[in-house]
Amino acid sequence: MEDLALVKAFQQGKTSAFNALYDRYADNVYRFVRAKTSENEEAKDITQNVFLEVIRTLSKAKITRTFKAWLFGIAANEVRDFWIKHYQMPIDSIDLLLENGHEGLLPQKPATPKSTKAQAELLQKLYEQIPPTQARVIHMRFYQGLTRKEIAAELQVPEETVKTWQYRALKVLRSLDIRDFSSLGGAGHE
């Protein structure tokens, strides 16, 4: 049965239609998410969230493109939300990261009440300036305090690759005019 016929059947109350869509796309969604997160357990959780969102919204959805495109749009949004949540840290952490360069480690401290949504948005803007793998390395190295060797093991890449990603990410972050963001609560970097 075609995807849109299954969608229509689900919208008419046939739960077996959702099961067919799930069976058809779950592996593909998981592989897409896994490629974007590089973490097996996180990818499983996000994939589950994708299909929970499908269940929640499909009954009233007006799909104007293919079901597959609609589904992967949800998956992309869930991955984006994961990274936004994953990188919420105090704004002064980015200042310390820039001050300490690529060899310094940040003290681990939880977000304070002053670490507002605006600060999280600032960090997201900063992380959007670099590829996701580089953002992940920066987070793991400077916020989680992992060594390059530990990051390499976690990401299943050579340690030199981690070093290169870290260097390139910090080079881009250093080139940004962080002072533009000081109104969001950060100390700025001059």
Short description:
The chain is mainly alpha-helical and 190 residues long. The protein contains nine helices and no strands.
Describe the structure.
There is one protein chain. This protein is mainly α. The protein is 68% helix and 0% strand. The protein has 2 domains: 3-86, Rna Polymerase Sigma Factor, Chain: A (Orthogonal Bundle); 91-184, Winged helix-like DNA-binding domain superfamily/Winged helix DNA-binding domain (Arc Repressor Mutant, subunit A, Orthogonal Bundle), CATH 1.10.10.10. The protein has 9 helices and no strands. The longest helix has 23 residues, at 15-37. It is elongated, with a radius of gyration of 20 Å. Residues 97-115 and 179-190 have low confidence and may be disordered.
Number of helices: 9
Strand content: under 5%
DSSP strand tally: 0
- Mean model confidence by pLDDT: 74
Provide the structure class.
Answer: mainly alpha
Report the principal-axis shape. elongated
Stretches where pLDDT falls below 50 for ≥5 residues?
Answer: 97-115, 179-190
- Which CATH class of the largest domain is shown? Mainly Alpha
Label the CATH architecture of the largest domain: Orthogonal Bundle
Describe the SSE topology:
Elements: H1 3-11, H2 15-37, H3 40-58, H4 67-86, H5 91-100, H6 117-128, H7 132-143, H8 148-155, H9 159-175
Helix pairs in contact: 1-2, 2-3, 2-4, 3-4, 7-9, 8-9
